[in-house]
């Protein structure tokens, strides 16, 4: 087997990208006209090799040798920077950007497939690149040409890195309570003061500079989230000629020491506390992005991109853990089958046991389903921007909007569970740091927390995404599922049975959604939003699996049989769990609402 | 609040032990006649204080400073030994043993409640004591008076420690493949050779000696598990006068480096490799326990005790994580309720949010349910030995037998999930090593693996415990549930609704069990054993919650209302998940059975 087999399945990526998502067709659109299937494949090959050769080798090293403060400076594991430098040298960082900013206009869906390789190899090191790219893209969309030239170009070149600074110590998920302030200075810039928490990549010496994107409140603005504006606050000021200037007043307060994801330094940053005094004045120098009061909307540009990246990173961790536990199960002899237990018989490999197969199929259904969903969403990003018809673009935008909370939360929840099953397949060995799955599990536990917790995604889905635009998002999703159901029911018995089960769940979800939306009382309506998110998530994944079954067509090789087994697992073992969740939602259960906390 | 509130709830223990399990009534039996409710309470107080003062303070220290090899010797974190010495000084180690071996004949159920305190405080340090006690009790049951005097007494005094040596590198769960051999020597002892893996407490310097209980194959025996005998293999030989003699030929091969549970050293041990040559001869000196070929049956004495201990440790970790996340949720302001979102309003504590309450109630239902189940099983241990009527003892034995795989696996699975929810309640902070819940989660991940994996418990339950003695165990369990259902249905609407839902699930479980047992083909019959274990587990826990509801009687204070809310959570959110699992089992689904591993 090739060396990269352990990280991800290239055969599956080819299937998802080409047989299902038909990314080759994108080259018929003007934006992607210079590309071809073979350039897509070459980029995937390049990234797979780079992930294997430069990212995977230090994954465990940078976990064991976590970031630390040495004389006030962040000391990262020394293998991180060369990997990121090698990545930047390929031009990968700007690969989806417009030609006008030095990009290659590669489809987002191909980029996300590459991201999966890096995340499978080393999610912590990839985190630096991911944040930098997302930051740069926000500025491409909302920054001025001068801001793009000064900050974005060096980020795409890998010389500058980027962060997103939203949370504060007193307000994690509650952005309405942001206290960081921006005061206008005489020269058109702002002076930023405040403390930001949970800032990944907040300080390090991986490049020449760090571009912080900071949500802050201008004095004049409204309270709550509407008063927030977005600012570029570089670690070092940048001259008109692009030269690195004075140290800005951004200082490192401390590091957070995490269970996993340790290679990505996570920081508390202080802005404008007087540690540094650029130009002799107080406050960190910040540059307003776009117009005042638009900070949150702009930040959502980056947040939505990052949420999808969290989804693909979660999927990649679940995927690589699956492949590693599969390899282990194939080679490790242990026990005998219940129909051939005699002790004189040789032990069989773990994979011969039904319960091990169940755990492998569960992992496969989670990982391949999650990867499929996130790639589908990335293809929607492309369609939103480049589909030939206006209506098609709007439709892609609606669908992406409603799928984003699921594409973030479902892989986070279920691929974490998948990594736990990967440990279980390894038995005691999986619990030791001698095997990779131990780290994948710890790394994965972050995914339901960062970039909007599970509960935040749930409220976003039930409280907003299913109802805005008169429920147009849910309607488009429902239509897509029904289209697949119709196509699937014309196929063989397995696929049509899958379609039939999915259709029942789909109809029930619509019904329950209407019932909830009709409820006048917001606390009750949203009280079980997380259960709703989980029910909707399983239905969406059953649909993604139906799409994959349909894309298989008549194919009947081992690959296709494996896909069908995973889809059947999902239909038989997972989808039936949706009904009791929807029943609970339909009952408008008030157990949590009526609880008096003093009873706990 | 008293300092020990954070670890466990004494109010709940009082409720479970006294109001529900009526442990005071045990003092009417001759064995416990010298005790009274007040002596039970005093011992609980003493253990709670000791856990708080001596075990909890170094829980994080011994996690960060894990065991390591220094010049061939195991170096443990220095706070571990004083804590264990303090525990031994209280006489706790032999507290349930007979007076004839220096014990206090305390009921097992009281002992297990004490164990919960120590595990909540520091499960890794408690692990040494737990193994020593279980080892000593096996020898009390099966060892000769001379063996008891030589090895058990020093263990109860805390001078010797004990291990159980079952697994080998090539055979983790598959004891039939044990290769360690025992050759009879001329003096009636044996010489042991082989390698044992995953040995907790396998080497250290916490006391004067370590008593290994080793499963090994005598040359004459049959193959498989029937050829296994049990041997005492001390680290140091012990003279007739109890003096510590020569080093036995047991040597440390290496340490396993684990995700959690780090304070408990886990080792690979080599027996009889010639590192040491006691008496100049080859092989480690071993003393046969009881008769040859009875090793596995004897070891099950210890394994069943340890499985129950794993259950209570899992429950304690889930419990303390629950209490810590509850304390955090009560004090941390974050966001606003959906019916009062205006940004000028102050933030509310996390506990005001429905989704946080859901996560707290889930944790409470898992932790208090799991603790209840394990204490119930410990009470069965007492009844099995001391109930006045012979029939009652038999009944307790049957019930304990069928409940043990559930009492081990259910707390392991669901309290692990509970610790994950405890992290989620903390948000990003919960993922950092600044908060205890991060460690509780890592520690908890071991519980579905050690002392028989989840899959092993599943096969034990479906393949053995539900069918032996013509299904008498299942019948007794069913009768107990029906008795509770009958009692519950005479009470208020909440309790009778709980009883009704439970009764339906109970009847369906019986039906599905019969269907599975009737299936001629063992691979299909047992293929979904893990799903069966999980379905049966949730039904048993719904019963345990019904028992608690009944025990509450008319009580209507905050404690009782909290219990009712947790029971209602379990009935509304958890129990309905049983039906699709039983449907899957009834369908005799062959997804895993028919899978060709080459498809994966």
From TrEMBL, chains A, B:
Q: Which residues form a coiled coil?
A: none
Please report the stretch or stretches of sequence annotated as the Acetyl-CoA dehydrogenase-like C-terminal domain: 479-596
All copies of domain Acyl-CoA oxidase/dehydrogenase middle, residue ranges: 164-263
* Domain Acyl-CoA dehydrogenase/oxidase N-terminal, first and last residues per copy: 42-158
Which terms in the Gene Ontology molecular function aspect does this entry carry? Answer: flavin adenine dinucleotide binding; oxidoreductase activity, acting on the CH-CH group of donors
Q: Which UniProt keywords apply?
A: FAD, Flavoprotein, Oxidoreductase
Superkingdom is: Bacteria
Provide the cofactor list for this protein: FAD
**Domain spans labelled Acyl-CoA dehydrogenase/oxidase C-terminal:** 293-459
Q: Which InterPro entries match?
A: Acyl-CoA_dh-like_C_dom, Acyl-CoA_Oxase/DH_mid-dom, Acyl-CoA_Oxase/DH_mid-dom_sf, AcylCo_DH-like_C, AcylCo_DH/oxidase_C, AcylCoA_DH/ox_N, AcylCoA_DH/ox_N_sf, AcylCoA_DH/oxidase_NM_dom_sf
Which protein family is named in the record? Belongs to the acyl-CoA dehydrogenase family.
Q: Supply the name of the protein.
A: Acyl-CoA dehydrogenase
């Amino acid at each position: 087997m090739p060396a990269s087999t352990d990280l991800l399945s290239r055969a599956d990526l080819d299937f998802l990208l080409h047989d299902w998502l038909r990314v080759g067709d994108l080259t018929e659109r003007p934006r992607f006209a210079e590309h071809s299937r073979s350039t897509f494949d070459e980029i995937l090959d390049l990234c797979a090799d780079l992930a294997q050769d430069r990212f995977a080798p230090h994954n465990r090293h940078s976990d064991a040798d976590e970031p630390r403060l040495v004389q006030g400076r962040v000391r990262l594991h020394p293998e991180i920077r060369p990997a990121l430098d090698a990545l930047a040298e390929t031009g990968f960082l700007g690969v989806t950007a417009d030609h006008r900013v030095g990009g290659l206009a590669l489809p987002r869906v191909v980029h996300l497939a590459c991201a999966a390789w890096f995340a499978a190899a080393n999610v912590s090191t990839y985190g630096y690149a991911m944040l930098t790219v997302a930051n740069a893209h926000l500025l491409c969309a909302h920054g001025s040409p001068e801001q793009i030239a000064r900050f974005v170009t060096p980020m795409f070149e890998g010389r500058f890195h980027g962060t997103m600074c939203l949370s504060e110590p007193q307000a994690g998920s509650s952005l309405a309570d942001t206290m960081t302030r921006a005061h206008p200075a005489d020269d058109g810039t702002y002076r930023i003061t405040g403390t930001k928490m949970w800032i990944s990549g907040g300080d390090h010496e991986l490049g020449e500079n760090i571009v912080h994107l900071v949500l802050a409140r201008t004095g004049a603005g409204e309270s709550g989230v509407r008063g927030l504006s977005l600012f570029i606050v570089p670690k070092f000021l940048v001259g008109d000629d692009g030269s690195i200037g004075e140290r800005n007043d951004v200082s490192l307060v401390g590091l957070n020491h995490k269970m996993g994801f340790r290679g990505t330094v996570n920081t508390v940053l202080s802005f404008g506390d007087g540690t540094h005094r650029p130009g002799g004045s107080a406050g960190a120098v910040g540059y307003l992005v776009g117009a005042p009061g638009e900070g949150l909307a702009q930040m959502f540009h980056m947040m939505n991109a990052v949420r999808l990246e969290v989804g693909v990173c979660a999927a990649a961790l679940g995927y690589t853990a699956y492949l590693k536990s599969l390899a282990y199960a194939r080679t490790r002899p242990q026990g005998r089958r219940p129909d051939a237990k005699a002790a004189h018989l040789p032990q069989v490999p773990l994979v011969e046991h039904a319960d091990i197969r169940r755990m492998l199929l569960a992992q496969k259904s989670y990982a391949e389903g999650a990867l499929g969903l996130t790639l589908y969403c990335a293809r929607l990003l492309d369609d939103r921007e480049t589909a030939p018809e206006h209506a098609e673009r709007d439709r892609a935008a609606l669908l992406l909007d409603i799928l984003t909370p699921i594409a973030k939360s479902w892989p986070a929840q279920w691929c974490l569970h998948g990594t736990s099953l990967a440990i279980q397949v390894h038995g005691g060995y999986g619990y030791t740091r001698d095997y990779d799955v131990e780290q994948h599990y710890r790394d994965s536990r972050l995914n339901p927390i960062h970039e909007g917790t599970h509960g935040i995604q749930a409220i976003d889905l039930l409280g907003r995404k299913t109802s805005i635009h008169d429920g147009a998002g849910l309607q488009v999703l429902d239509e897509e599922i029904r289209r697949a159901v119709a196509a699937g029911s014309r196929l063989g018995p397995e696929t049509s049975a899958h379609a039939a089960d999915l259709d029942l769940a789909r109809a029930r979800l619509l019904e329950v959604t209407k019932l909830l939306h009709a409820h006048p009382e917001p606390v009750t309506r949203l009280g079980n939003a997380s259960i709703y998110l989980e029910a909707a998530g399983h239905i969406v994944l059953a649909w993604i699996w139906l799409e994959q079954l349909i894309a298989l067509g008549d194919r009947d090789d081992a690959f296709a049989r494996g896909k069908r087994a995973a889809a059947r697992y999902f239909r038989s073992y997972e989808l039936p769990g949706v009904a009791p969740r929807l029943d609970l939602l339909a009952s408008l259960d008030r157990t949590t609402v009526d609880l008096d906390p003093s009873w706990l």
